[in-house]
């Protein structure tokens, strides 16, 4: 898939106010400072579609972007460790939960994980919650350019080992780097394939 157009549509904190159309949605979420905005900009070939910031917790709303006038890319607030008030964090968690629970247009989510670190409880807990609520998702490992291939393989295998303790199979996953455009084609081809499958069905 080639991204020919990417346009901001709306931001809000109320799932009921999200776009009413039946256009398929793909949600991106991850721990604060995981590189989500950079990944979105890399996937869409836009330098500042999503706002990047050195301060974790910058994204505080549900942000909809229409891609190729065919599907929505949804940028969700990060979970965990954001430098915001406890009240604000509870609000994030509430509408994140509501989005995943009630948004029928959601095709799948992408849970972003920083490949540089060993498996983090906050990431694993969120994946478990997604699994328990039957919400389809893939893992996107970010910042792969920061590690050597052997270290990447080791960290991915660490996640696999932990998940397979309770899951029958490991979720689909991608290795990416926003600065090197690693994984861009794979993620976009996956979305294109899911869109095509919905049309065929």
Structure description:
- The chain is of the alpha/beta class.
- The protein has a single domain, classed as Rossmann fold, CATH 3.40.50.
- It has helices spanning 36-44, 86-102, 121-132, 149-163, 184-200, and strands at residues 6-12, 25-30, 62-67, 71-75, 106-114, 137-142, 173-175.
- A seven-stranded mixed β-sheet has the order 1-3-4-2-5-6-7, sandwiched between helices.
Number of helices: 5
Terminal Cα span: 20 Å
In which range does the helix fraction lie? 25-40%
CATH domain fold name: Rossmann fold
Which H/E pattern describes the elements? EEHEEHEHEHEH
In total, how many domains does the architecture comprise? Answer: 1
Q: Could you report the average pLDDT, rounded to the nearest whole number? A: 88
Shape: globular
Radius of gyration: 16 Å
Which key terms come to mind for this protein?
5 helices, globular, 201 residues, alpha/beta, Rossmann fold
How are the secondary structure elements laid out?
Elements: E1 6-12, E2 25-30, H1 36-44, E3 62-67, E4 71-75, H2 86-102, E5 106-114, H3 121-132, E6 137-142, H4 149-163, E7 173-175, H5 184-200
Parallel strand pairs: 2-4, 2-5, 5-6, 6-7
Antiparallel strand pairs: 1-3, 3-4
Short description:
This protein is α/β, with parallel strands linked by helices and 201 residues long. Helix content is 35%, strand content 21%.
